[in-house]
Amino acid sequence: MNKIQQGSVTTSIENGIATITFFHPSHNSLPSIILADLVSAITAMGKEEAAKVIVLKSAGNRTFCAGASFDELTAIEDFEAGKEFFSGFANVINACRKCPKLIIGRVQGKAVGGGVGVASATDYCLATKYASVKLSELAIGIGPFVVGPAVARKIGESAMSQLAINATEWKPAQWAKDKGLYAEVFDSVEEMDAAIEVLAKKLTASNPEAMRLLKQIFWQGTEHWDELLAERAAMSGQLVLSDFTREAIAKFKGK
Length: 255
Hints:
Blueprint: E1 8-14, E2 17-23, H1 32-47, E3 53-58, H2 70-75, H3 79-98, E4 103-107, E5 111-112, H4 114-121, E6 124-128, E7 133-134, H5 148-155, H6 157-165, H7 173-179, E8 184-186, H8 189-204, H9 208-218, H10 225-239, H11 243-254
Parallel strand pairs: 2-3, 3-4, 4-6, 5-7, 6-8
Antiparallel strand pairs: 1-2
């Protein structure tokens, strides 16, 4: 198994609460195989009658998600491969959007690039004070094109543009809460998990049809995202082939 293929996505259901957990040894980065497995897991749990609510999380107590896999980015050799890779992020966002169940995000640590996109695609996101955010794409010659709509939907165009333009600066978890990405920020993982359990239990006792309809209303205006995010994936897929981006990624990997 090569480095890109390492990692996992696991699911479980207990007392009506479905938990989807992704893991990759490179700071929970997201190669294509993990992105595809996340789409499958989210879609399956959306259809699973025993699942009343979904918790989306990553493994470990440090980084929530380091975003795109640099190992896979450097291996892209043509436009179609680039578009396909970035379409993986589009597919995860759209799977969250279309899922009829409410999704609670659990962000225990830093979120970078695509990780911010994943957090933004959840319906209610809780985090620890260590969950700083950064959209680093411009710093490697691309741009947060695919995740941009999801991030802007949560925190607004102005805050999203701050993250996108100042691509090397971390914004603290409290900033993300103030902008609306996180509903609450906790001092510890234990406090966050306790709050998630309380909320999830409340939701399992709520009317499933009411929650489904609420989610439809929350996501109104995004019906065109299948096409929009595909277009954005094409932008990134083209840019990743540039000499500028290849050199920038190589420098990042060398740090």
